[in-house]
Design goal:
This protein is of the alpha/beta class. It contains 19 helices and 16 strands. The protein has helices at 7-26, 33-52, 75-86, 103-107, 127-148, 165-176, 188-196, 200-212, 224-234, 254-265, 275-280, 322-336, 355-363, 381-386, 406-413, 442-452, 461-472, 478-485, 487-491, and strands at residues 62-70, 90-96, 111-115, 154-159, 179-184, 218-221, 239-240, 284-286, 290-293, 299-301, 307-312, 344-349, 370-373, 391-394, 418-421, 436-439. The termini are close together.
């Protein structure tokens, strides 16, 4: 049976309810108020007691996986849901359905999607007032969703975003006797500070995480650095669960590469071969990277193809893509200066609030040897494109300095070498001069692109060596990693 939250926690909830009613008493409403208050408290206690113990034989095989964000862009939580289902748990997957999750998540009979909508709050009044109303409305919505579902043995929640989810999920666990698990991907207040600065709202968010975060029964985190910080500064003992690539992330066979390139060429001219080539070879199906012989269905990569540079992003403040754009301008300068380098097709995938801003910057560039496109890829196409790329670039710069970019994990699963911007704990993932390079500014990135692509498309040189290192040093996969670190928490008596 699942570990239940402590009795003091339950008493705290009842104390809050009683305090509210006592406050109403003090305002003065007649001699019957104490009687009414006592009756209401008794009724609420009875209701909470009934909800807490409304369990059945299947309760211990039910888990809620909760994200106050887009489920389709929460790969780690999708992996949690799949791992739980593989071990026979029935998963209720709660979150926003803005982007379609992975097909294997949608197909899994033991996973039930429970969509919620992002509450906008009121549109008038001071910013703080609008934010407070949004939090209150989101709390009520989430409380309703969690209490109407069957009792779960565990609620496994992603943080961030954790406001108001942590407090609501904890309260539901208190009421229903479930075990609360937080998976710390980062700190919410440090993410907020990127756009708001050190404001009272950010300080309130920090206080909120410090107060409610430690109330969970179990904690997971993404790096050893975060584990140490949680222990030293928050009094939280967490288990490090490193991100690992799913099995779909692997090197892509040439034929599948061509099929994706050809589909993308219908909407993105950067993937199209020149028109004169298509007119000359009617028995061939061409993209800028590949050729398919229609007579025998063989596919080959073109010897004179451009290098495919890939980056993925949520277009948020923790990724400064002007660094990449400046590096590409310098790379263009190398070619114009006589350097023997391939042309580049730079693909930047993802959705997010700053995409339009960077699209305008990209459109203002005038590059002859570098082409840039920003497609949104379906979940099934993204790993195929990663496995087809020649080099990855990561601009993720952790707001806390304690998390690692999942995109690099996926790139490494495809044996794709990476150039990544430096921050404190990046060395836990990217080994400089072993599986990629770490840079600090656009000039250093441009020099790294020049060095790595100088012998392209030959597999000799540093780029080939990094790929070979990734091929021969594939670590523990997600399933084994999860079974070792998470399953004992879920099955603990």
């Amino acid at each position: 049976m699942a570990t239940r939250c402590t009795s003091p926690a339950s008493l705290a909830v009842f104390a809050v309810i009683s305090s509210v009613l006592i406050a109403l008493d003090v305002t003065g409403s007649g001699v019957t108020c104490p009687v009414v208050s006592l009756a209401v408290v008794t009724g609420l206690v009875s209701l909470l007691w009934w909800l807490r113990w409304r369990r059945d034989d299947r309760t211990d095989r039910r888990v809620c996986v909760l994200v106050l964000g887009d489920l389709g862009r929460s790969p780690r939580m999708q992996y949690h849901a799949l791992s739980l289902s593989k071990h026979g748990y029935h998963v209720t997957f709660v979150g926003f359905l803005e982007t379609k999750p992975r097909e294997d998540v949608l197909r899994e009979e033991k996973i039930t999607m429970e969509p919620i909508t992002e509450v906008r709050g009121v549109r008038v009044g001071p910013k703080v007032f609008r934010y407070v109303t949004k939090v209150i409305l989101q709390s009520l919505q989430l409380l309703h969703v969690l209490l109407k579902m069957e009792t779960q043995s565990h609620i496994l929640m992603q943080n961030p975003p954790g406001l108001p989810g942590i407090a609501v999920a904890w309260l539901v666990c208190v009421v229903r006797g479930s075990s609360f698990v937080i998976d710390w991907h980062n700190y919410g207040f440090t993410v907020m500070a990127l756009s708001l600065g050190e404001t009272p709202l950010v300080r309130l968010a920090r206080w909120y995480e410090h107060v409610f975060g430690p109330l969970a029964a179990h904690h997971l985190c993404v790096t050893t650095a975060m584990k140490d910080d949680l222990q030293n500064n928050w009094g939280i003992r967490a288990t490090t669960l490193y991100d690992r690539p799913a099995s779909v992330f692997r090197e892509t066979p040439v034929k599948l590469q061509h099929e994706l390139f050809f589909r993308l060429s219908n909407t993105h001219p950067q993937f199209q071969s020149s028109r004169c080539e298509d007119e000359e070879e009617e028995e061939e199906e061409r993209t800028v990277f590949s050729v398919r012989d229609l007579t025998d269905d063989t596919v080959t990569l073109r010897a004179e193809r451009p290098a495919l540079l890939l980056s993925s992003t949520s277009w948020t403040e923790d990724e400064d893509f002007s660094v990449l754009l400046e590096a590409l301008e310098e790379y263009e300068g190398f070619i114009k200066g006589g350097a023997s380098l391939p042309s580049l097709v730079c693909v930047i995938t993802g959705k997010g609030p700053q995409k339009d801003h960077y699209r305008k910057l990209i459109d203002s560039l005038h590059l002859e040897h570098v082409e840039i496109c920003t497609p949104w890829l379906e979940a099934e196409d993204y790993p195929v494109l990663l496995g087809s790329a020649d080099l990855g670039v990561c601009l993720h710069k952790s707001s806390s300095g304690l998390d690692l970019p999942m995109k690099v994990v996926d790139m490494f699963g495809c044996c794709l070498p990476v150039c990544a911007i430096h921050f404190n704990c990046l060395h836990e993932l990217v080994k400089h001069e072993e599986n990629g390079l770490i840079f600090r500014d656009s000039q250093e990135l441009a020099e790294q692109l020049k060095s790595l692509l100088s012998q392209f498309p030959s597999s000799d040189g540093r780029l080939g060596a990094f790929r070979t290192n990734l091929q021969t040093s594939r670590g523990q996969n997600w399933d084994d990693n999860w079974d070792q670190n998470v399953l004992p928490l879920i099955t603990a008596p």
